[in-house]
Structures
1.
Amino acid sequence: MGRIVLTILSVIGVAVVLVMNAGVQVDFNLLGWQMEALPVTVVAMGGFVLGVLYSFLFYVSNFLSKGRRDRMAARRQKLKSREQEIKSKTDDLKQREKLVQSAAEPPPSSDVSEHSPGKKGRLAGMLGLGKGKSDQETQADSDQS
């Protein structure tokens, strides 16, 4: 509502300036470029148009800057969420690695001789290493015969 009122007042003000200065002419110098006998209304309209263009370009640049800031903020947020996700996956993998390592380690035993090869066990019996004669005893028996 305020913009509409401001726009209407601006248009009315420009119209009043144009009507009151319709016959007045001035010399105009724009950065060394001189114009003589230029109507005041043309100078006023030119200033008004240039002001509107400047305001429009200022608005567009702010709009683009804000959009760029928003995209960068969204990108930063996405990056932080990815970092957290990677960290949680890394921690999970470390925990799984510890579980695998702890499962791969043999349980501590109190008697080492039970688990030594050639003494007892199903595999030792199948290979003929357990409970039977040792290689030295077998060789000694064959020498005596």
2.
Amino acid sequence: MNNLLLFACVCLAGLVACRKTTQRPVPESPLHPDSAYVRFTVTAEGGETVRDGRLLVFRDGSSQLCEFNMAFNGDHTPAIRMISGARRVFVVANVASRPRIEYALDQVIEGQTTATEFLNDISRFDPAGHVAGLGDPFAVDLVVDGESVVMGNAIDPQSAMNITGGVTREQCEAAAPDVPTANSFTITVKPVVAQCSVSYAGPSALTTADNAGELSQLVWTLRGQNRSIFLVQRLDGTTPCAPYYNMFINTPPTELGDPALFAQYFYNGAPYPASPNIFDVGLAAQSCYTTENTSLTPCALNTTCASIRAVYTPHHAYASVDYLFGQQMFANHVAVNVTPGTTLYRTTVDGNGLPRGAVFTDRDEAYKAAYLLKNPAAASVPDLGGFDPAGYLDVYVGGQCYYRLYFGEGDNSVAGGAVVFGVHRAGRYSAIIKSFDAIGSPVDNFVEQQPDGKPTEHIKAVRSK
């Protein structure tokens, strides 16, 4: 009985096996005349590599709704089936493994988010940290290992692309890029960050132009960086406009020197020496990345620049001076040789035979000179233990002084502040210092600008972009 049952099971299994058919792929449904396949190839400016990206496709016209939010690997998307018509297309490249950017882009919901909402809200992004240098949290969001840079395309008339109906997958995939009739489009992206470097031309650049001293131990870091970026570039006509581009256009020049107005929008970096991104200024340039920063109303507090720190050693300094009380006159200046790194005391006014800019190395002698500059009719010098020399002396601790160097030309040869002083994405800004006018500021985060608010500097440099 058991043998008969086993024989029946084997025969049944064979019958089932004989009736099994080979699975064939289900053919795609025929294209509706208004349907088509589309493919996008992404290229990068500046020799960067496109490793991956996020494709965002919005309907053009009144609805502007998002139709596709698609991640892709490599430098092109697969063929995508959609309805013919005009589209606005944006790509943010090299975003894989950048969770904060990926999370932001995930907020673009197909069928819900409009192009306006994406451009005005979601595309605006605050990088982690704000100092543009390798190794800083800034790098986690925008730059990895100095080479994988987040990139995006620009908002311009070409962002509206017309999808032709009836194009099959085979026609689309076989077409060369930029063959619109076959719906094969190329989108160009550029890095969302700029690259800046500083160097000096040669040893002669380290003697101040007034021939009063020498500079040594030069280093630099960035100040005035934009705290936000746009993942896709915004344009005002042809001029790039970064976040806060026209925010201060109605601010009176008298208020443009108030740090409180700008602190939440622009980052001045950690003070020396705490900044994690300090670079040497030498014959060979060292570079770092920074966010795009343009403004219709540039001033010292909203403009990206290099803060340069140097040790100043004067050619001539006073060990002491005498004061002829009957004649109210300084006399008998005793000169002293100065060792680099010595703390300096420099007069900020002149009077009674002592010039503005006289440098002392002895604190007591400097305070005495400041007291007599403030009180020229004094009959004697009292104990100066509680005397405040502010307004009459600058103190350079360790001989250190500071300069600001702006990466834009700053010469008003090109109309518009955003062009003159702006730092634009994908720019490679190089400043080669030719000379320093004189000793710099005794403090780093100083504000020095023209009456109209535009920044000033005391460095002659050759700039290139």
3.
Amino acid sequence: MPDAADPLPWQLAAARLSYRLAFGPTDTREFRPGELFGPDTPDALGVRDRVPGDWGKTDCPDETDPAVSEQDWIAHFLTLALNEAVHEVLEWFQVDGVRYLNPHGGHEAAIVKHVDRLAEQLALLAETDEQNRH
């Protein structure tokens, strides 16, 4: 049986972590067809004070296609917002001062793919809940 003075596993883990919520009310973003654009954001690595505050995707709907509905655009913009948010979480979620999962590393494409799937599922939930928003 562990000594009562011994830290519990959750305490050991928590002591190694650092995380900063890098979003704030002044961090406004503008949605454009292939980009979420906004002011520079704090640099999680501390290399620079600020880094560009935009997030882009090349696989966006054709902005001139009349078959692409407003709801389709909202779902697309959700993918931009969620990808930016998850990317920032991964930048700032660190173990012993090192990113737990590097959003720029070898898993970058897989991370984006997973977040895109999450955004798709959340958009479906939002569409089915539309009647509750009015």
4.
Amino acid sequence: MNTLRDLLQQLDTLSHDELEVVRRHIEERQQHTKSAAERMAAIDAAIEAFNEDLSPEMLDKILWAMNVEFVNPVDLERLREEMGDES
């Protein structure tokens, strides 16, 4: 198993393009490792932005529709079989 020192030494041997790939990978990973509080704050902000343009009447209609209309869940396995997807 590599130690941190080994990893840093391996990074020193990479080309500029390879280092760019590593940098993007690290940034992407950091985005996916946000704390629960950070993720909730982002969700709250998105909901607030969504609600800004809706009147109370429109929100009431949306909530009513969500509580009344039933949508059958998708059977992913059957759908994949029908589509011929082997994944």
